[in-house]
Automatic annotation (TrEMBL), chain A:
Taxonomic lineage from the root: Eukaryota, Metazoa, Ecdysozoa, Arthropoda, Hexapoda
PROSITE patterns: RAB, RAS, RHO
Entry keywords, A to Z: Nucleotide-binding
Protein family per UniProt: Belongs to the small GTPase superfamily. Rab family.
Protein known as: Vacuolar protein sorting-associated protein 21
TrEMBL record, chain B:
Gene field: LOC115630575
Compositional bias of kind Low complexity: 89-104
GO BP: any one term: protein targeting to vacuole
Acidic residues bias: start-end ranges: 22-46
Domain FUZ/MON1/HPS1 third Longin, residue spans: 434-533
Entries under InterPro entries matching the protein: FUZ/MON1/HPS1_longin_1, FUZ/MON1/HPS1_longin_2, FUZ/MON1/HPS1_longin_3, Mon1
Chain ranges of the FUZ/MON1/HPS1 first Longin domain: 132-255
Family named by the database record: Belongs to the MON1/SAND family.
Biased composition (Polar residues): 1-20
Disordered: annotated span: 1-124
Domain (FUZ/MON1/HPS1 second Longin): residue spans on this chain: 302-400
Protein name: Vacuolar fusion protein MON1 homolog
Top-level division of the source organism's lineage: Eukaryota
Organism: Drosophila lebanonensis
Biased composition (Basic and acidic residues): 47-56
């Protein structure tokens, strides 16, 4: 069996629910825990995608400003970043841009980016529209999801999409820090065929993949990815970021 | 100087109009004497400060430097990296400042309970009636922290504080130490652009309050480091430090709420009063097994400076790098961190922490995790290498495995599960039923032994009295002007004994009906017993890797 081990860093402003997102996904029990993270918390989880076992090392960082100086230590050698913002606070969305810029400056290896708008259950207080977030995600080459840690909506997709992205990265072989190897525990022999995990109609799939965007997601259309028909986007570039600066009409001062 | 002048004037004019709480002080000042002067300050702390000043060089960067040369490893960070990063941070702080500060403020006030825009704390009897207040502000008068109430709404009070401090500083080239008025002590300390003030109705002496403030200051350094904070204030005198401290307020709060003023009855306060820590009682063989398990799995990790194992606010074991040790004040910060971070219980953490007395200019990186789900002892592995997470994580797993194999986890659990983990001590105390409580601190180690609180000190009022008794005798024993060796006092509700010898300090509280000869007999008995059991309750020397 093929095993891919990747480092995932969770970034975002304070109080957007990074720790909750991770904890909820990993053991689905939410301690009513309002403590801010100190430094970084470390989690591991395994995701099976058909023939590929993906081990995620999740680094859940603290969002406070003072940890910003230490962030390079956390995202160093990361293969994927989950950028979380709070849908009810526009500021946290705007701050994602500074994270993108920083990653762009400091990380050379290609990285899978996932943009997550959290607290989607709070419809009334919503301050960031789905379209705007989508557009921004496209511009930085990220996949966009909305989640709720209260109702558990969308959590699975975030991590599955990240895992899928890592598989893609491993297939392309462009990332030096991503570890991919054949496990001797494998019961399937010589199963090197790439993209086997994408064979969605295979009944033996460990997971039936939910709606997952890879590359540029198209809004409103049910996009299923296949090995061939995948739209390849270059990993983000500074021009894309410039394009992503959409003025939000309702946001002022 | 010009910068401070302006708010000073504003603030003084405010004094007369608004603040009733402080107005009283303003009037009684002339009779009571404004400043006690510097000479009454605790020598101990001054020494400590001087020591810290003396070792200007950073131990951490030295350690890192050594590592770099020894290993020649490209991974080990260069000593300059830290400063480079803080420069980056300062720059980003600068750029964010305009946009963020406004929103941060609104957010913070949104979190507080009362949202009234102009809540008048100074006429709020609950606020004024608090036994203790702690205020922290920057030299420029910017509010940073208030123990009770929202610091945003206390701006006038902060102005008054700043005016008092800068008046004494500039007109008399002196530093204000304390003001005593109407049974309230106002104690001031100034450290590195910060002004920390305690206003207290408790029995704590000026020195004890200073130590508490100094602990709070250390807590702030522990989150920010001295060099980082200095740089920020050098750049912008009126920087709002709350932005950098956000999320760590609970650490400051927890540190301050150890005494009776926050309605808690616990032995924690005595750690700080005697400037020591408590040790988790364990059979000597168990403790040495634990230490050797840590040594065996960590001795090969080059950049590991300390390994600290803690349970229930007590030290199980400390293993250190040769030549270095942890000061009890630093250890108290670690205890504080562990005590108020429940989240460490569920997952591994990789946390930067500055131990200000060890090295106030740099972070150590701490791998923090509980030994196992079925053993609530917390292990911290402190390293100077910021990339050591996985090495330490593996080491921790091996330590847990080893401790499980040789039944040390069971031994720790046994200690934790006994209704009170000093049950044996309790028994011992019970055999002298007239002995109500005691503090025993050997001179050679900064470790404290005290039995669990029992009747009558389990109720809050009685505990407050006990705390006051200890504050009082500790203050008299450690008085710089006239230190005492022995106090025997028959009070209305208890007999108090304080005895300082060459090897230990003992403070004991007896039933009021015992006569002197019996007290002496009991104390002898107690001392003999402690000497016999010394290794269970104290750690003579901390092992090295």
């Amino acid at each position: 069996m093929r095993v891919i081990e990747g480092k995932v860093v969770v970034l975002g402003s304070r109080g957007v629910g990074k720790t909750r997102l991770v904890i909820k996904y990993i053991n689905s029990t939410l301690h009513r825990n309002e403590e801010p993270t100190i430094g970084v918390s470390f989690f591991t989880c395994k995701i099976m995608l058909d023939e590929v076992k993906i081990k995620l090392q999740i680094w859940d960082t603290a969002g406070q400003e003072r940890y910003k100086a230490l962030a390079p230590m956390y995202y160093r050698n990361a293969n994927a970043a989950i950028l979380v913002f709070d849908l009810t606070q526009y500021k946290t969305f705007a701050e994602i841009k500074s994270w993108i810029q920083e990653l762009h400056r400091n990380v050379q290896d290609p990285m899978i980016l996932t943009l997550v708008g959290n607290k989607m259950d709070m419809h009334a207080e919503r301050a960031v529209s789905r379209d705007e977030a989508h557009l921004f995600a496209n511009s930085i080459g990220a996949t966009y999801f909305e989640t709720s840690t209260e109702t558990d909506q969308g959590l699975e997709q975030v991590f599955l999409s990240t895992a899928l992205g890592l598989v893609r990265l491993a297939d392309e072989g462009k990332s030096r820090s991503l570890r991919s190897f054949q496990s001797c525990e494998s019961i399937y022999k010589n199963n090197n065929t790439a993209f086997s995990h994408l064979n969605l109609d295979n009944g033996s799939a460990a997971f039936r993949l939910p709606y997952v965007h890879i590359g540029i997601p198209v809004d409103g259309e049910d996009v299923r990815t296949s090995g061939e028909g995948r739209l390849e986007t270059p990993s983000w570039s500074i021009e894309h970021i410039a394009l992503g600066e959409v003025e939000h009409t309702s946001w002022c001062c | 100087m010009e910068i401070e002048q302006t708010p000073t004037n504003v603030a003084t004019s405010d004094t007369n109009s608004t603040s009733e709480y402080l107005d009283a002080e303003g009037e009684s000042d002339p009779d009571e004497g404004v400043a006690d002067g510097v000479d009454e300050q605790d020598d101990y702390y001054q020494e400590q400060e001087r020591e810290a000043e003396a070792q200007r060089h950073s131990i951490i960067s030295e350690l890192r430097g050594e590592l770099g040369t020894r290993t020649g490893n490209a991974l080990s960070p260069d000593p300059g990296a830290e400063s480079g990063q803080s420069k980056d941070l300062a720059a980003s702080v600068e750029s964010l400042a305009l946009s963020a500060s406004a929103s941060v403020k609104t957010e913070d006030s949104g979190n507080t309970v009362d949202d009234e825009p102009d809540h008048d704390y100074q006429n709020d009897s609950a606020w004024c009636g608090q036994k203790k207040h702690i205020f922290i502000l920057s030299e420029a008068g910017k509010p940073i922290y208030s123990l009770h109430g929202s610091e945003d709404k206390l701006v006038t009070l902060f102005g008054v504080i700043q005016a008092l401090v800068s008046f004494v500083q500039h007109s008399q080239q002196d530093a204000i130490t304390s003001i005593h008025a109407r049974g309230i002590k106002f104690v001031f300390i100034q450290r590195n652009s910060l002004i920390l003030v305690a206003a207290s109705r408790t029995n704590m002496s000026v020195q004890q309050l200073q130590r508490q403030l100094s602990d709070v200051y250390n807590q702030i350094l522990s989150t920010l480091t001295y060099s980082h904070m200095s740089k920020i204030f050098e750049k912008r005198k009126n920087f709002d430090l709350r932005r950098l401290l956000s999320g760590s307020e609970r650490l400051i709060y927890n540190l301050l709420s150890n005494d009776s003023s926050s309605k808690r009855v616990s032995n924690n306060v005595f750690d700080f009063l005697t400037n020591s820590i408590r040790v988790f009682p364990l059979a000597t063989s168990t403790r040495s097994n634990i230490i050797s398990a840590i040594q065996a799995n960590c001795s090969k990790i080059k950049d590991l400076v300390f390994a600290v194992l803690i349970a229930n606010n007590q030290l199980i074991a400390l293993v250190r790098m040769k030549k270095y040790s942890i000061h009890p004040a630093d250890l108290r910060l670690i205890f504080n961190l562990i005590e108020c971070s429940q989240s460490f219980k569920t997952y591994e953490n990789w946390t930067p922490i500055c131990l200000p007395i060890f090295d106030k200019n740099g972070y150590l990186h701490a791998h923090v995790s509980y030994l196992a789900e079925d053993c609530q002892a917390c292990l911290l592995l402190l390293s100077v290498d910021r990339n050591a997470f996985f090495t330490l994580s593996e080491a921790k797993a091996r330590i847990t495995e080893k401790l499980r194999k040789n039944h040390c986890l069971d031994a720790i659990n046994e200690g934790l599960q006994q209704p009170y983990n000093d049950a044996k001590l309790y028994e011992q105390v019970l055999s002298v039923p007239e002995l109500r409580h005691f503090l025993y601190k050997p001179k050679t180690t900064a470790q404290l032994l005290c039995p669990m609180l029992r009747h009558p000190y389990k109720s809050l009022e009685e505990f407050e009295r006990l705390e006051a008794v200890y504050c009082n005798i500790l203050h008299r024993i450690h008085n710089n002007a006239r230190p005492l060796k022995l106090i025997y006092e028959v009070r209305e509700r208890e007999i108090v004994l304080a005895w300082v010898t060459a090897t230990y300090e003992l403070y004991a509280v007896f039933e009021p009906i015992v006569d002197k000869a019996t007290v002496i007999k009991y104390v002898d008995k107690l001392i003999k017993w402690i000497e016999k059991e010394y290794d269970v309750y104290f750690i003579r020397t901390h092992a090295t890797f």
